[in-house]
Amino acid sequence: MRAKLGIIAGGGDLPVKLLDACRRQGRPAFVIGLTGSAEPRPEDGVADAWASIGSVGKILGLLRDAGCTGVVMAGNVRRPDFATLRLDWKGIKVIPRIVAAARHGDDHLLRSLVTIFEEEGFKVVGADQILDDLLMPAGPLGRYDLPPALMPDLERGIIIVRALGAVDVGQGAVVAGGDAVAVEAAEGTDRMLARAAELRAGWTVRDGLLVKLPKPNQEKRVDLPTIGVATVEGAAAAGLAGIAVAAGATLVLDRDALVARADALGLFVVGIRR
Amino acid sequence: MRAKLGIIAGGGDLPVKLLDACRRQGRPAFVIGLTGSAEPRPEDGVADAWASIGSVGKILGLLRDAGCTGVVMAGNVRRPDFATLRLDWKGIKVIPRIVAAARHGDDHLLRSLVTIFEEEGFKVVGADQILDDLLMPAGPLGRYDLPPALMPDLERGIIIVRALGAVDVGQGAVVAGGDAVAVEAAEGTDRMLARAAELRAGWTVRDGLLVKLPKPNQEKRVDLPTIGVATVEGAAAAGLAGIAVAAGATLVLDRDALVARADALGLFVVGIRR
């Protein structure tokens, strides 16, 4: 019997996919849905328990009572409003550290959470350690490759995303014809792509690309850049020619569906080594 | 009789204000409205001629025929779609340089335009050289000052905007509680603030600030950061406590109205020296 895994579940499909993988691997798992972030959908019904993000004591207690030794944090979590967050006893104890870390950006915030779980004796693992086919490979994922004409936009995108990442802001940017159409902060990739679509309304030729890269010193267990079918559709709606992400450091959700959609829409999705 | 000034007018109020200032100063001026960027409003009726941004030959000819020696570029101009831009003979001649510059960002693009006007014998001046009360002073502009509790957000905002500026992306960011709520690219400050308002919906306490700074090597004659009444209202709608801009390197439009609105809404607007 393998060690039991606690899945702390935010929004999106990743937590369900992790649970499916655990079941396939015969690995026992316990899912704590985060109130307000994980959407309780009747067809899932995967959460064994629910907790708000401020009830740190409850979350630790649930994990211990369930016999979990490892923990994975997966899915989208909105940064809480610390001023109005309801805290339990353990939450009150750890919140000053979290708020202090949060002042320096999301990556510091997530690192402080990892440290808290580790101090409580849990092993924190990355989603890619459970779902081993989740990581982006190098090269094109589907039928189309990055055209040489877009190399300058790729280079400019890499420079921009690295600059953003170095100050712990975001992981993505849309570049077309050298223009930084949109750069990503708290709104996330999908909203950034929707904005790019508005700004580029009336595009006549697919041009430019979305570049998504991890931050230089990123805590890779909790917040790797992620792409899915919605990313491909958002990039297509913005008139982009494709998507470039870091090979070996990007989670690809629903790979088969993503490739099918990218091929159908004529978009490239490439993993770059940098 | 002072040298005649050509005003190449984009959108917004700045071109009209420049023309008013020229009239007050007894300085002859000739206004070329940029089709698609300057809005022809009946109450203005200020444009002596109209030209599209691709008809560079026409613009140069109009300036020469009008006897202009100096040129000021003022107001918002949307970056054109170079693929569909209609060019005249001179436009065709200079467009390769402009497109090559544009690949490196807006600042390079604007610099290439300045160089083209200078090569044609025009003196390019900044709007602040005409409207001398336009530049932001150091310190608070209205009744409220930056509270000490927001110094960490100001510091983080400065770091973020400098990083953006160094890669020629944008001039602004919204930071609250250490979180990079939104960073600005092609969408401009007003849309970035609208996004911050959406992301911060339900805010209960004014917190955080907008930081706007020129890019490190900015061509200061054509694209200084600008704030106006709409900036104050956008910041208020996003639940921000105020606005920090670079003293001596920011254009303040409608200063009296801006101060009145900021005071009424309880927002600080400060000029910082960095």
TrEMBL record, chains A, B:
UniProt signal peptide: none
Domain LpxI C-terminal per the UniProt entry, residue ranges: 138-270
Residue ranges annotated for the LpxI N-terminal domain, each copy included: 4-134
InterPro entries, sorted: LpxI, LpxI_C, LpxI_C_sf, LpxI_N
PANTHER family reported in the protein's UniProt record: BLL4848 PROTEIN, LPXI FAMILY PROTEIN
Record's protein name: DUF1009 domain-containing protein
